[in-house]
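Example record used in the benchmark description.
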Amino acid sequence: MHERLIAEFPAHGHATEPCDLSAVAARALIGAKRLSPSELVESCIARIERVNPAVNAVVATCFERARAEARAATEAVMRGDDLGPLHGLPLGVKDLNDTEGLVTTYGSPLYRDHVPAKDELMVARLRRAGAIVLGKTATPEFGAGGNTTVNPVHGYTRNAFDPARACGGSSGGSGVALACGMMPLCTGSDSGGSLRKPATFSGVTAIRPTVGLVPSERRRIGYTHFSVQGPMARTVEDCGLMLSVMAGRDIADPLSYDVDARSLRDLPEVDLARLSVAVSVDFGWAPVEHGIRAVFEQRLARFAAVFARCDRHDPGLETALDVFWILRGVYFLAAHLDRYRNHRDQLGANIVTNVEAGLAMTAEQIAWAEAEHTRLYRGFQRLFDDYDLLITPGQPITPTAVEQRNVTAINGQPMKNYMHASGLTSALTLMGNPCVSIPCGRDHTGMPFGLQICGPMKGDAVTLGAARALERLFAADPELARPVPDLAVLLRAA
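Model output (structure tokens):
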């Protein structure tokens, strides 16, 4: 039966088991009583048990609770109950997010045995909408690490396309779990690119939403563009579906605001032929590998003509790297200074480096960074007076060796600090605009390649709609379509 059902959704491609279905397709089958939540959960559990030992993407599980919730969800379907938008859909939760009754380590030995008493806001919203948590996905220690996902509690997470290479961070476990078909939806978070890099490295999709769209009660500094939470999935529609549940005002987050969830669940149809698009390979200053630059130009040549207008335009963010590094130091002081003072010997190098960088900054430097951030923001928003979107490479590098925790040089140019190599994403973090990452074939080394699509403030729905239109365009071209890892090859390599 599964083969017949899966064959009805060829647009999602490569599906061989229920766990390979998109969230939207699986939810439609559940609602039509043609696929039960129990069948879907069992398929995902089987995939995790088979593949996870090779990649270490899922670091804690709650399978028996998930099975019980799936049985209850199946009974609700058969009774004809009103079903939530995520009813019966398996979910992976990043190990930075608190989950009731399920160990949450934040990747730190300090929390090796920590079991929260309740779900945090975002997780609670997803579960109320019907999602079934299967387990926790790997993250670097406290999310500090953009190149590879590794922590002293769970070790390395490996790329599904080549286990010898990195999967990006800090939502690396979510990206790999999605690529391998372990679950259709995963949570992620992003300060300098932690949704966008692992999505690009794993050939999946993510959106860093407009700041405030997804509220969080756990941000130490509420008035900041830095850390946001967002969805990761295998398709743009799946991200929209998940985001529609995550989004909406909550009094605990001072930047949160109300939104029409239907606009995210039912994305607008966007005609690419009516769009004016700005394209930048490096903003005029960000380090980008020669190979990635060449692949971006090749891909752009294949699809640029679909737009009404496609211009080369660098948005003038030359000071963004320095602003980001200074404000990041302030953010880390707020989040980790107490741990640094009391447990320094149990913290990793990335946490220590960021805290000490913050301690060394002067009030004059911080004041400059705050004022310069505002100036950059105002100038960048004027870009959308002339353009509907800004498109850049998804990442400036191809995945490195899995053991390489930080990128120290690009094209022979030394990096100033460990965020220097993330200039393409961290600069747009400062702006606060929605940024969607979508796959666009493979790069010059055979690893997933992707695009970063930035839209206007609070234009998350239309940005996702444009990304979906590109996704459909790419799906018809074997060179641009979403790559899928060969699990048999992965298991042999591992």
